[in-house]
């Protein structure tokens, strides 16, 4: 679904002035595990965009509590990478700083403190903004409800997630974007260093789930780009 964006930035900037907070790299789901003082744990990782996809403006992974209400809004891990003038005008709405910039990708660290319990990655969305950011198309992908556990007093590392465009050709052999996916990798040491730079004390124990996620090969999550 394509939509014009020429008037959107000015409207969003007006909203941003009135808003109490920007969109951060980790937003909590509306429905969380219930229970009597379950304790909390840390979940962290990184999300970004491939250097080969400079028109990707917004990369998000959605998650929710397994026992949460599916009718409620999910949580999100988010990275906003401005494309063109329109993207730069929108950037005040987002608090997703570039924490790493490497030859093949750039992105941000996401950190959330959640009630202990079971969660699942339930969606992925990428906004591609060609035409110097003045138009955009949102592509959705299904990660297959990948579950992860947050333990009280512990830390769960999900991995690095880098968004890519899935390119192909239409019936006339004209190149076109046919979808999106995230490449998952284990960058625990680097992301622990980024966590320390954020002023967070290094967790004493970390449950590293990225090796398992790297074995997936579904619509949204892959170990490597084709």
Please describe what this structure looks like:
The protein is mostly beta strands and 226 residues long. Helix content is 14%, strand content 46%. Helix 1 (8-18) packs parallel to helix 2. The two termini are 26 Å apart. 37% of the residues are buried.
Instruction: Please summarize the sheet with the most strands.
Output: 7 strands, antiparallel
Element string (H = helix, E = strand): EHEEEEEHEEEEEEEEHEHE
Q: How many DSSP helices?
A: 4
Count of all domains: 1
Strand content: over 45%
Helix content: 10-25%
Shape: globular
Radius of gyration, in Å, reads 18 Å
What is the rounded distance between the termini?
A: 26 Å
Number of strands: 16
Mean pLDDT: 85
Residue windows where pLDDT falls under 50 for at least 5 positions:
1-20
Protein structure class: mainly beta
């Amino acid at each position: 679904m394509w939509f014009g964006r020429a008037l959107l930035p000015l409207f969003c900037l007006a909203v941003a002035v009135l808003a109490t907070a920007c969109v951060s790299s980790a937003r909590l789901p509306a429905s969380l595990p219930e229970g009597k003082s379950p304790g909390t744990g840390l979940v962290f990782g990184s999300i970004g965009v491939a250097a080969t996809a400079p028109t990707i403006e917004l990369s998000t992974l959605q998650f929710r509590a397994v026992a949460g209400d599916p009718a409620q809004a999910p949580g999100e891990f988010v990275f906003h990478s401005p494309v063109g003038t329109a993207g730069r005008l929108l950037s005040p709405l987002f608090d997703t700083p570039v924490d790493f910039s490497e030859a093949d990708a750039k992105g941000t660290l996401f950190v959330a403190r959640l009630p202990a319990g079971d969660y699942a990655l339930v969606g992925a969305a990428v906004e591609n903004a060609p035409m110097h950011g003045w138009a955009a198309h949102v592509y959705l992908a299904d990660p297959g409800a990948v579950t992860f556990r947050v333990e009280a007093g512990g830390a769960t590392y999900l991995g690095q997630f880098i968004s890519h465009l899935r390119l192909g050709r239409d019936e006339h052999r004209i190149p076109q974007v046919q979808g999106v996916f995230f490449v998952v990798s284990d960058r625990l040491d680097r992301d622990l260093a980024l966590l320390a730079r954020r002023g967070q004390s290094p967790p004493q124990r970390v449950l590293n789930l990225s090796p398992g996620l790297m074995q997936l090969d579904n619509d949204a999550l892959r170990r490597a780009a084709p």
